[in-house]
């Protein structure tokens, strides 16, 4: 058996990998597009004439680009129904008049290129748009097969796909596929509703996008067919099993929304609508409320800093991702050791050779290094007024129960929340011990309850008030708290008190902040998610052009939303001048700083202490400099010569002849009246 030295990073690699696999989540999106002849009709949009089918491809292209930036692990697929031919694929069963245009997978440059290069002429050759009006009931049959194909793809992966969010976008211009079914209409309707209930049981959110409304808003009526189909899916989503109850409720609420304009639907398909970017859990933990009582919770980041993704290594010939793996090999036989044989010892040079090595297994070593188990532990309660702004060390995390992790978590979570808020003038906050991962250092966290509210906004698309729950704020330790205003360098006043703004200056600052508010009357509330980061926008712009094989666009084409509007600032000149007068006493702003001394300028003489000044005054330096040989400066010691140099702020380095030459040169430059 091979000996392995102690390596904390290696011991935690597998554990952190398991945590990441549990905490990560993605979404599967399938676009089901009607390939009827009516989709080939054209209309003019912003001076460009394109068909409804080409418009659907354009929206999906933008969706793929947005998903690559925001959620590269999401999977997107495109399926046509009502086609002349059917596709044969290993991933998708063969259904009559169903064609898989883009396989369900994370989008890449090839996916975007395939959607961008879509041409109706080549599509008519294979698979071809069919004329469903020639065969009664064909539209409903093809839609049923298309929904069945979507069900096959959304269940790919078995039980592992249960925690994946699923969405289905149906692009069609047919308000009632059953209008020509005749006596077979009731049977086909029940089969379509059965397909819808199966999708709803998977917590799939279904969205119908009638593109014909782009040219005529009154050309499409949801009528009894599509409303009944969505109601069946919504009812099945609400009746999901416990493992999918939360996702089913979210899907049902989206399908039960009031009818909205097509532009709102188009915005959601493009991915620029806020509600399409669902909050993803950052971590899944257990919260210990009492001995023997634990609940499952998830942590959500309400505000995240957008960063560039980490680079990945790929192979030179096929551009495949390079993966690495490690294993322990027996020194004598060269065989790979299984995990049960992995043991380690902690080396200590002081005790080496005196005692035998203590071999520890991975589990034993992790147990020794674990101070507290991973998760949250309730310690007690404090009034919310005890929490100060200075106690917040970083961004908060929203804590929400996870019923799929431990059953009964929601009920216990709600009971704890009500105990902290209901019937209290001042809410209580829960103080907990927080360990982010196994072997991590514990820290204190405050669970601050948030009052319940309602979701309102423009057309119900912006969530102004969040759901009730707890916000987790990390608390500092005693040595983390600093008081910079108590430092001597900060005490500028003669009375020893730190500088404070006057009441007039505070009032002027408040008026300036109120005048420069980012909320515009009559428009939706300001949100930082509506402004693009110009640095990231340029990064993705160049990366997209290189991936598509195009030349990078010039920098001038980048739109910077962060640049302020000049006319907007000029409207508040009066308030800005009032603030300058209150703070600096002039509308010119703060006084200009003095420029630094130019290179080569003689430096100012340093302060001279009393001992140097007394010793300097004892000698006639001009007279000594005029006498030659030992009658002059040569009779003085090097320490006395440095007294003259220190007094005048000159360099004191060098041997005695260099010091004498420096003094003689300086004396010759001084006026006669400065003789001491």
From TrEMBL:
Matches recorded under PANTHER family: KU AUTOANTIGEN DNA HELICASE, X-RAY REPAIR CROSS-COMPLEMENTING PROTEIN 6
Pfam families, per database record: Ku, Ku_C, Ku_N, SAP
The protein's name in its UniProt record: SAP domain-containing protein
Residues in SAP domain copies: 633-667
UniProt-annotated stretches for the region Disordered: 1-26
Domain of life: Eukaryota
Listed SUPFAM superfamilies: SAP domain, SPOC domain-like, vWA-like
GO molecular function: ATP binding; damaged DNA binding; DNA helicase activity; double-stranded DNA binding; hydrolase activity; telomeric DNA binding
Locations listed in the record: Nucleus
Keyword terms: ATP-binding, DNA damage, DNA recombination, DNA repair, DNA-binding, Helicase, Hydrolase, Nucleotide-binding, Nucleus
CDD domains with a match to the protein in the record: KU70
Species: Tetradesmus obliquus (Green alga)
Family named by the database record: Belongs to the ku70 family.
Record GO biological process: DNA recombination; double-strand break repair via nonhomologous end joining; telomere maintenance
KW DNA-binding (keyword) present: yes
Any one Gene Ontology cellular component term annotated for this protein: Ku70:Ku80 complex
Biased segments, Acidic residues type: 1-21
Tagged with keyword DNA-binding: yes
